[in-house]
Structure formats: C-alpha cells, structure tokens
Amino acid sequence: MKDFFYIFKASFERDLKIHFSYKLNIIGELFFSFVLVFMLFYIASVFENSKSDFLEKYNHNYFLFLLSGLMVFLFLTRVFSSIVYFVSSAQTLGYFESFFVSKTNPVIIILASSAFPISQGYLRLFFIFIFAIIFDPNSLSFFNLFQIFSILLLSIIPFVGIGLIVTSIVIIYKRAAFVSSIFLIGCAAFSGVIFPIDVLPPYLQKLSFIFPSSFALDLVRGAIIEEKYLIEMLKDFFGIIVLSFFYLILGIFAVQTSIIKAKKNGTIGHY
Amino acid sequence: MEIELKNLNKKFNEKSIFTNFNFKFHSSRRYALYGPNGSGKTTLLKLISNLVKEDDGEIKFTNKSSSISYINSDTRTFFQRLSPVDNLYFFGSINGMSKTQVRKAIEEDFKDFNITSFMDMPLSNLSLGQVQIINIVRGFLIQPNVLLCDEIFANLDEKNVKNLILFLDNYKAKKDLIEIYTSHNKDFLKNFCDEEIFL
Which CATH number does the domain B1-66+145-164+175-199 belong to among 3.40.50.970, 1.20.1640.10, 3.40.50.300, 3.40.1010.20? Predict the structure, then answer.
C-alpha cells in the first residue's frame, strides 16, 4: 500500500511538472469555467418561467440543474479520459514498454496516472463554482461545494474502472475513440446531465442504471437542490458502490487480459 | 545464475521467428547476438524481458529474483516535457527508488558521463547521444543482474563509447551478471563479448 501511494505521488509530480511546462493552462481553465457558467446562466434563463413538471423536484431551478449536471459530467469524464489518454500517449510517444520492465505492476502505473487529472478536475470545479456563485449568489453556498467534492470523490472509482475497460481496447487495437465517444454520449444522454431522465420513455430510463454518473448526479442534485438528508439517498450511494466494484474489477481484468494478448502479439509498444 | 531457453517457439503473423530454439546463458559472460534484419534478435531480448510472450516452450531463470534491464536505442521512451532528472525520478519511483537514491546513482555511478551538465535541461533540447546516456542510466538504476542491450552504443560519440565500455567492465566485475548485446557493428561486438550467437 505504501508503494501504491508512492507511485501515485510520483505520477502526480510528473504530471504537475508537465502541466506547468505549458504556460497558458491555468488561464485556459479560468476562461473555460467563466464561459461555461456564463452560457449556462443565460441558457437557463430561457426556461426561467417554465413550470415543467419534470423540473418540479428541482425547484424549477434549471440553472442549478444544468450547472450540477455539467460539473459532474466534466469531472467524471475527465477521470475516465485521462486514463485512456495516458496509455494512448504512452504507446504513441514510446514509453509504454518501459513500464513493463519495471518492478511495478503496469496496472498500478496506469491507475496512478489519474492522480493529477483528478486534482485538476477538482480545481476546474472550484473555478466553475466560484463563477456560479457570482452569477447566482442566492442558490449556492460553499457548503454545497464541500458536498459536491465529497460525492464526486466517491464516484471516481467506477469511472476509473470504465477508463480501464476502454484502455484494454487501446492496448490491443491502439485506438478506441469510437468506444469512448459512445460511452460519453451515453453518459450525457442517459444520466440526466442536461435534461431529467424522467423525460425519456420508461424503457430508455432503465439504461441510466449502467452509467455511474446517473447516481452521482442524483446525489449531487439531492444534496444541493432538493436538500435531501443522507438517509434519503442511500439507494444512490448503494448504486455507486455496486457499480464501483463491478467496473473496477472488470477494468482490471480487462487490462490484464489485454496485456497478455498484446505480449503474445508482440504489440505492447506499438501504436 | 543461468537463463535456459527450452524449445522456444515464436511466430508473428504466421512467420516463424523461433522454432524449438534452445540455449543456455550463463552468468559472468557477455553474449553477442548476430543475425540479419528480422532474424529475431530484438524478439529474443523481448522474450527474455517478458515484453513478448512465447507461443510455446519455456524461459527458465535459475535465480528467481532476477532483476532484468532491457535497454535499447529508442530515444523516444521518455517524457519529453520533463528534464532527464525528473524522468529518472519517475522511472526510479516505479522501481521502488527514492529521489535521493536516484540522485546518488547519477552523481556517483555515472559521474564519467558528465550527466549533471544537462540534467535539468528539457529532454527535448538534448542531443540523441545525451538521451541515449539517460536511457542507459535508467537501465542501470535497478542494479540489474540480467542486462539485455539492443544497440545501446548507437548515437554515442567515441568518448562516451569508451566511458560506457569502462562502466560495463567495472559493473561486470562487481556483479553476478548475464549480458546479451546486439549491434550492427560486428567487429566491435566480437572483441567486446565472450560468446557469439548467430540467429
């Protein structure tokens, strides 16, 4: 376990240095966060007087609905993409093979690559939240930020697992953009990111159960919009925990299987 | 220590590279691998280092705790936005080494290569020869007792080739070591190694 954290720390330091070697990154993050909140605020204002039944449980606050949806989506998909991108870059740039002649299990090196993107995702959430408070000071408090951060911490694991599953495709087939896109579109469409899933026909609503972002979004909205107590949201917590085990175990198994196959084909370092 | 290759078979896309290949490598010996392009020199080194899996047969290490280093001449195998020292810190960490241990190895074991003069420069600003030195340093961080060298003298100038030979001789004197080299410079390897293998 000590070694595990040591490699996480080393990966974090590595990516932090790479990040700061690009001078305009922080300004880009701030600008992106501002433009996002600005757009959401005015998009939501179009529906300000809407009395749609679907938004009733969210107090008809479509701005908070959209904001929470995109915050969760952007954060969790960053965690997912970072793992896929790390392996894809390692193959393209040529250092992937060197992980396999080290003393550390390559799965741990791949997992550790998410350390910096997670903190980067949190920083972006912080910026978005600050701008959101400026635009709508009456609906949000800093306690909400704490609630969102805590819920997302719990939601990272299934996305890491899904990242590993897609990574296993990258290891063998070298490209998985198609699979990533399907997953991201699925998340956006069936998790309730920009519209409540109740809008969908009942048979399509069932699809939301395979996307961990659905549970994460219900938890975040339950906490910051509906002001539910923890006990009222146990079903969603349970959903996240079940999907965490399922996707993480499946992800580790998929990566290990793909490594064996790539070694057999002699294509570990190919891209 | 020994490495025994028993009835090794390997095919890529139906092309057979090794068919019932047998060989035994012994410690304290330097082996030179020869063969035309595509004969399987790199594949053999990758099979021993477990970067490629055999289709059939067995690779047996008599010393179960062998630490294997596979060093090639691919200078792309680093994080280009990082300096050599930051790259070595990271690759040291995945081999269980602290920054202090890595720094000590650079300053003491490799002082003849004058690495400290370019240690903090971005890797993308270094010459191919300088990156190759970093590649070699990385391979030796784990103090290997199986050394698999695929064209490691490539990109090095005359002075650094001499330094490297001296370093390898000193390392061999201190360690129970199996060394396997490939190079297109056959005359050079003939003088440098104890035994030749033709594939």
Answer: 3.40.50.300
